[in-house]
Amino acid sequence: MDSYLTPYLPVLILLVIAGVMCTAISLLAGKLGPRRITSVKEGAFECGNPSTGDGHARHSVRFYLVALLFIVFDVESVFVYPWGAMLHDFQAQHLGWFAFGEMMSFMATLALGLVYVWRKGALNWSADVNS
Amino acid sequence: MNFNPNDLVGILPAVILTLGGCALMTTEVFLRKDGPDRRYQPFLAAVFGLIALYVSLSQLGDPSATLFAGAAVADGIGRSISAVVSGTLVLSVLLAAGYLETLSASRGEFYALALFSAAGMCLLSQATDLIVVFIALEVMSLAVYSLTAWLRKGTKPAEAAFKYFVLGSFASAIFLYGAALAFGAAGSTRIADLALAVRNANAGSSMLVYAAGALLTVGFAFKVAAFPFHMWVPDVYDGAPAPVTGFMAAGVKAAAFATLARILIGGFGDVGASMGPHGWQSLIVLLAGATMLVGNVLAVPQRSVKRMLAYSSIAHAGYLLVSIAAMAGSEPRQDAVFGLVFYLASYAATVIGAFGIVALIERKLAPTGASDDLTTWGGLAQKHPLLAAAMSLFMLSLAGVPPTAGFMGKLGIFRAAIEAGLVPLAIFGVLTSAAGLYYYLRVVVYIYMVPSTKPEPVVGGRMLTAGVALAACAVLVIWMGVQPGAFATLTQSSLAGFGK
Questions:
Q1: Which residues span the domain enclosing A24?
Q2: Pick from B11, B98, B93: which is nearest to B44 by CA?
Q3: What gap in Å lies between CA B153 and CA B171, rounded to an integer?
Q4: Is A131 a residue whose pLDDT tops 50?
Q5: Is B73 helix (H, G, I), strand (E, B) or coil?
Q6: Stretch B36-45: mean pLDDT
Q7: How far apart are CA B116 and CA B140, in angstroms?
Q8: What are phi and psi of B73, to 5 degrees?
Q9: Per-residue pLDDT tens digits for A18-64
């Protein structure tokens, strides 16, 4: 067991140091730091605007749909950027058309998904949810 | 890594099913809402399923090939499971057609989800890399979770789907943890590399191998509904639409068992089976014994046939685990693999037929909110003699009475267990399946001997497509029971390239 996990010892040491340092710094800051509490400091910070309303406001269920669609197309861009940067290297290894085909089939699948959500009305923000 | 176009031919069934799913999903959104023009959907889905079935059967004899640089494989067991899954899909969508139409819940997404799920099952049975296993597992499971909640009205489907989703995700996480530990032991997620690591395991890495084997087994024990990970089964099988339950019971089991066998035999192998005092064989023997006992005992008090079939599916997972345990020895592995594949095929034909008849009763009951009870089945023989005969046939096959498919399946599995030296387990299996006779035959008694309490017919709605699918199931059940040799190509080739 020892020999097996030895390469990971630095990671463990780093974890311990990081844990000790973070705890120590926050404890020390809490103990030693001056406390001058004003009502402005206590208030919630909302980009400089005075905060209004309850913090526990209910969000429209549509945000869930937006978040879902966002993830789909966000993941797409996560794949497309490295692919674009690497395409020349792929070509040098004679994998250019393969990489191109892979990305095109991936985009085509996503495009089908876009057609689906578009026609379903998921992108139509103002429409009634039930229509 | 080099791309070889032949790799796509190797996973052709999954590709066909995926294309079918995309076609159904995109055409659905161009149809008018609630129009009558959705009739084509089950048949289109069935056509894609039939093509996938044809492709996997025609590839059966081909030599096995490594695909995608070792991430997947096209071998006998993958192809035979793809064939079973495609056949399951075809029968299930035909049974679902009339069911959904009667309950006005017919939508293209249902068939698209079924096709995507079947594609995941085919890929799962071909995966030889733990990452690919995980992706295929999720493709299969997520689609099945949504299919479970298809009839959104009422609390039962919501409860079933939520329970299935939460517990299923939990099981996936356990599987993933096992895969991570396997990676720690092998330095790779390929099952073949895991086998190397197990063979060379020393005192340091054997703990990792143990934990990885246990966690991977637990992940699949959940998917195949083995004790003690069976708690979700009755509620989920009961809450899901009956055609979906049949699809789930047959398809998910087939794919998950093939992968469990691949991981245990291909990854942990004979070295892992007898490693230390507790190799994976003793783990599987324990699971199999407990699963057979619990499934059969808990099925006895059930009044609802659908729930009884859910518990019976747990018991059948136990019989299938016996064949996995019998694979551990090197000599009789052939019989155990044949037994597994044949049993999966025979169980698929039987259970889809049984749930198909439950679906006919359920679609009559569903609008009233009542659930199926043994008394509902009274008088079926007078009003629908053919349905009554088919249901009795499926019950006899589930109980393992000759000359049905279930008998030949059990025979193969218990013979393999005896050849592998697991005589006590085989005897225990036979005893528990004898207990199963009681609750299967009780359904037959109600169908034939108890008169109906209500004047109206037991089943309702259009019956043609469901009738064709049920007839196909019945023919398969008898055919596999009388002439199991006809399915030899399906099972014989399943050994090729598997379990080296």
A1: 2-34
A2: B93
A3: 27
A4: no
A5: strand
A6: 84
A7: 7
A8: -145, 145
A9: 999 999 999 999 888 888 888 877 777 777 777 777 778 777 777 88
Helix (H, G, I), strand (E, B) or coil at B20: helix
Go through B353-368 and write b for each residue having 16 or more CB atoms within 10 A of its CB, e for each that does not.
bbbbbbbbbbbbbbee
Rounded Cα gap, residues B442 and B396, in angstroms = 11
Q: Which residue of B has its CA nearest to A4?
A: B204
In chain A, how many domains are there? 2
Q: Which residues in B lie closer than 8 A to residue A112 (C-beta atoms)?
A: 22, 25-26
Contact indicator for B446, B377 with CB cutoff of 8 Å: yes
Query: CB–CB of B22 and A112 under 8 A?
Result: yes
Separation in Å, CA B276 to CA B203, B206, B270, B271: 11, 9, 12, 9
Average pLDDT, integer, range A76-84:
87
Shared-domain flag, residues A112 and A76: yes
Would you list the DSSP string of B288-343? HHHHHHHHHHHHTT--SHHHHHHHHHHHHHHHHHHHHHHTSSSTTHHHHHHHHHHH
| Chain A residues with beta carbon closer than 8 angstroms to that of B204 | 1-5
Angle at B361 between CA B356 and CA B367, to 5 degrees: 120
Q: Are residues A66 and A116 in the same domain?
A: yes
Chain B partners within 8 Å of A127 (Cβ): none
Distance CA B305, CA B317 (A): 18
Q: Are residues A27 and A67 located together in one domain of the fold?
A: no
- What per-residue confidence (pLDDT) applies to B500? 42
Residue A130, both tokens: 């039930």
Element (H, E) at B157: helix B155-186
- Tell me, yes or no, whether A23 and A66 share the same domain: no
C-beta separation of B86 from B101 below 8 A: no
Contact residues on chain B for A4, CB-CB shorter than 8 A = 204-205, 208
Q: Looking at per-residue confidence, does B58 or B368 come out higher?
A: B58
Return the pLDDT at A130.
Answer: 46
Please list the alpha-helical segments (H only) found in chain A: 2-5, 9-32, 39-42, 62-92, 96-120
Chain A: residue whose CA lies nearest to B29: A119
pLDDT in tens, B246-274: 999 999 999 999 999 989 888 887 777 77
A46: which 2 tokens? 């909302």
Distance CA A15, CA A27 (A): 18
Count other C-beta atoms under 10 Å from residue B235's C-beta: 18
Ramachandran sector of residue B196 (left: φ over 0; alpha: ψ -120 to 50; beta: rest): alpha
Residue count of chain B, please give it.
Answer: 500
pLDDT above 90 as % of chain B: 42
C-alpha torsion angle, residues A20, A21, A23, A24 (rounded to 10): 110
Q: Does B146 touch chain A (CB under 8 A)?
A: no
**Does this complex have an ipTM over 0.85?**
no
Q: Say how many Å lie between the first and final Cα of chain B, rounded.
A: 24
User: Do the domain assignments include residue A47?
Assistant: no
Q: In chain B, where are the structural domains located?
A: 7-495
Mind listing the pLDDT tens digit for each residue in B425-480? 999 999 998 888 999 999 999 888 887 776 666 666 678 888 899 999 999 998 88
Tell me the helix, strand and coil percentages in chain B, rounded to 5.
75, 0, 20
Q: Please give the torsion angle defined by the CA atoms of residues B212, B215, B219 and B224, in that order, rounded to the nearest 10 degrees.
A: 100
Report if residue A128 sits inside a domain. no
